[in-house]
Design a protein that fits this description.
Two copies of one chain form a homodimer.
Chain A (H helix, E strand, L loop, with lengths): L12 H25 L4 E7 L5 H11 L5 E5 L5 H4 L5 H4 L8 E5 L4 H8 L5 H20 L3 E8 L2 H13 L9 H8 L1 H14 L7 E5 L3 H21 L33 H18 L9 E8 L5 H9 L7 E5 L5 H4 L5 H4 L8 E5 L8 H4 L5 H20 L2 E9 L2 H13 L9 H8 L1 H15 L6 E5 L3 H25 L2 H24 L4 H5 L1
Parallel strand pairs in A: 1-3, 1-4, 2-3, 4-5, 6-8, 6-9, 7-8, 9-10
Helix pairs in contact in A: 1-10, 2-10, 5-9, 11-20, 12-20, 20-21
Chain lengths: ~525, ~525
């Protein structure tokens, strides 16, 4: 969930100065229309890591909007009045009326997350609370409310830096308390809990908007633009007020995203490639023959641009396995039988038994990629698909399956080169179609869809691994190594007993490592080298 | 949830013979249209108490419908194939395709309920499973499926009788196994678990349809008619196939319902009334002054026909309390401020602190009564209100509040008498308005709304108490006695520690007792007498 918010987004002063006056004017207009319309309230939740600018953002909203119709509600320890009533009472009485906006600093999420981190609230109880919250928010949205949930994220290092900077500045030093530093110590715990909570409550009707908190200007502009977009979209909606309207996905504020942050120049020389390939193929061959694997199954999901090299990578994996053990499932347009079933049915039918491997060449993510971009399904359908897919992968995990997801990325230029090459080589000609050329024209829309997909479905339990596929050798080795490492840690965890939690932990670790790698790569370091 | 299914519904042979040919023809037509339309599947779950006719009903469906396009899937212990894959795999592969209907004998509910009863699945885990099921069913409905969930209910005595009858009949004796008798022993546990599961999963998009299983003809006719109604409604829906459409509420098959089953002839002589009134008012005065009550709050909700005597009953309750301790909240049309908030907001604002009492003269049930009947809100709104209200009362319970709900019922004739009386007596004239007269004309619609309300919101945690209010003395004493008994058992449970569970248990017991009373009353026994 946090990949996009660890890239080091920044807005320079000049851009900020140019953007803000337009944004403020538009926000005031939209707020005026909201009052005139008077049919729905706007509920803005400001949550996230300490020091990620929650307080500053609320001040910015006050500065930019008409404060007379904006109420802020800060929730810390409950009052006597509140403690003696049901838990949600304090939030009910703080709800903004129709035509108004309310900013919640601290919300119904704060207590459950804190109690869980402190060990006062077990996993099961936490999930029950999240279910209650989902029902509560569904009710709000059904009653017409526009619910915008912001989560401000900082990497651990980012949090330390921010706290130090705030301490130095006399204007903000008072904000940094002993508690702030103590919370840095529980950072990992918070991240794990937050990732879980965000996955559970990332509903189509009230999705989370994760914002990188490092840069003040980027953060303010993002929140301002999201609020504006959502307000405008909702005001323009011709449907009845009591119809749940999904807020828009986060707008692009700058050109930095999880894909552009990839370092596609990474390469592997032929000799090194051969050595590495042999090493990891050998390791994989051992791993799938371990007795422990007889209790698990492995699902490898490949997505990527056309001609990114999915097929080649798959062949390097299967080379290490017995043909009776694995199945490759190429996913193209659904058959008639499949179209007569719910979307995920065509993937469920291929779920492997324990001890077996299923490799999907394109996957259930088609719904939020090709189907979204080509309009094969409605907006409501692909919006709910994120949640459905997360639920689906969660079920697989619960049953002991190990799910590894790869996105293979190449540059437009390299794609063109490969297309042309394919047209020349006769045995590769069948691989290039008119459709491939058409897809290239929509590369902007696909780019956005991929970024949204990674933000919304790279969960602690089931992270995406982004593969720089410009160099085929580099890509294949990274993929094989990832498969081995994930498989190894899952099997080790399985032996320890509590397989589900351990696998979850290791995946979360992988995800963090992966994000770290993205950042490292931006700085020019290759992950393969890192390892050695 | 089970009130309506313990009334002893019966359909005589002649009616059945007359109805069935029409129903069969219509079902075949609808099934043909379903195939032609080909846009959605019909998923029918057959669940419930053993011996309530699950198998027989499936046979009837086969007899009445075109078996070529109807598949039945019986789920018992999973096969090897199934055990080695994720839990839901077996259900996914059994889903009927669009244009077809599938009958599930045993479903995704069976294992969690059984495991919970056997003690293998704790309350928290059970709730997590129910949350997963809700998400799964939401996905099915979003994908266009029509999901009909039947729960066949039998009272404990009814189950024993059925099993004996089946054992005697050589054609059915084979159905009765040792297991069947063993399950009779766990009847109470099953009922408690079922009530909880049905509450948690009674979603607007896939609500439960509870059917009394005692009489074969009644059961078959009900299922057939519900399937027919739902199919016809869904086929006639002009909206896009991917829009969730709520199935209709259970149709009325006969004239017997929770209201008509009440024995309104029950009376209390003046002398007895005075003695009883003094006794229970005294008891109530003691109870609200107990130190234990300082940790709880009491919420009494009154609904009833116009002129049913709510005000008089409330005054008999408040007479036992200190004016500083209670608040009466008369609920009329919402204020402007209240209209600018989600529907339940106006009730949340009046939630009492611990140690206090709130008495609602009309309540949050207005949404499913007057607002439904008068069309003040859309169908989707009052349909989701059942779930929202159950969630709301669950939250109150969790916070230690004791919630007692009364429905006061009088006959049309008695209502007319009281209306006329009110017009005559000057100080009562303000109590009768043109609206009251108008409401009388809609008494049929109100009757249906009240029955649906009781079926859908009388939960184990928060049961309705139906009050025969034809005789004011009888009604007032029944109300006071119920308040005292509920309060006493809740305070006792609270002292024991685990207040929530205990309170839940006692409410479930009350509900069962209440249903028992309804049945008893049909047989001419008064509950007041029962006690003495």
């Amino acid at each position: 969930m946090f990949e996009s918010a660890e890239l080091g987004h920044k807005i320079d002063k000049a851009t900020f100065r140019e953007e803000v006056p337009k944004l403020r004017a538009a926000l005031l207009d939209a707020q005026f229309d909201l009052r005139e319309n008077g049919k729905f309230p706007v509920i803005i939740l400001i949550s996230g890591v300490d020091g990620a600018g929650k307080g500053e953002t609320i001040n910015v909203l006050y500065e930019w909007m008409d404060a007379r119709y904006l109420s802020t509600l800060a929730f810390s320890a409950p009052s006597d009045e509140e403690r003696e009533r049901p838990y949600m009472w304090r939030y009910w009485r703080a709800l903004p009326a129709k035509g108004r906006a309310g900013v919640f600093a601290g919300s119904w999420y704060s207590d459950p997350i804190r109690d869980h981190i402190l060990g006062h609230l077990g996993k099961g109880d936490l999930d029950q609370r999240m279910d209650q919250i989902n029902r509560f928010e569904a009710m709000l949205v059904n009653e017409g409310a526009l619910v915008l949930k912001f989560w401000f994220h900082l990497s651990k290092e980012g949090q330390r830096t921010r706290l130090k900077a705030m301490e130095k500045d006399p204007r903000t030093a008072w904000r940094v308390t002993k508690d702030s530093w103590a919370r840095l110590k529980t950072y990992d715990k918070l991240q794990e809990a937050a990732a879980h909570v965000l996955r559970m409550t990332n509903t189509p009707w009230a999705p989370w908007i994760v914002v990188e908190g490092t840069d003040d200007r980027y953060r303010s502009l993002t929140v301002g633009k999201v609020v504006l977009d959502a307000l405008q979209k909702r005001l323009a909606d011709p449907r009845d007020q009591n119809y749940p309207v999904a807020p828009p996905l986060a707008p692009k504020i700058d050109t930095l995203d999880v894909l552009t942050a990839l370092d596609l120049t990474q390469k592997l020389e032929h000799k090194e490639y051969e050595a590495e390939l042999a090493k990891w193929q050998g390791r994989l061959a051992e791993l799938v023959r371990e007795p422990e694997f007889g209790k698990r199954s492995l699902i490898i999901a490949f997505e990527g641009s056309d001609a990114a090299g999915k097929g080649g990578a798959i062949r390097r994996i299967t080379a290490a396995m017995d043909a009776r053990q694995y199945q490759i499932i190429p996913v193209a347009a659904p058959t008639e039988e499949e179209r007569a079933q719910p979307y995920l049915w065509r993937f469920w039918r291929h779920m492997p038994r324990v001890g077996r491997v299923a490799i999907f060449d394109r996957t259930w993510y088609g719904r939020v990629l090709v189907e979204r971009v080509e309009g094969f399904c409605g907006e409501a359908d692909w919006l709910r698909a994120y949640t459905e897919i997360n639920d689906f992968e969660h079920e697989l995990k619960e049953a002991g399956a190990i799910v590894i997801k790869f996105w293979l990325q190449i540059s437009d230029k390299e794609q063109l080169r490969r297309f042309k090459e394919r047209e020349k080589i006769s045995f590769k000609r069948f691989k290039i179609t008119d459709e491939d050329w058409r897809n290239r024209e929509k590369s902007g829309a696909y780019h956005t869809a991929v970024c949204d997909m990674i933000d919304r479905t790279s969960t602690g339990l089931s992270p995406w691994t982004l593969v720089e596929a410009e160099d085929k050798s580099f890509a294949r080795v990274k993929i094989l190594r990832t498969v081995c490492e994930r498989l190894e840690s899952a099997l080790k965890a399985g032996k320890g007993g509590d397989s589900e939690r351990e696998a979850g932990k290791s995946s979360a670790r992988d995800a963090a490592k992966n994000s770290g790698k993205v950042a490292a790569k931006v700085a020019g370091k290759g992950p393969a080298k890192e390892k050695e």
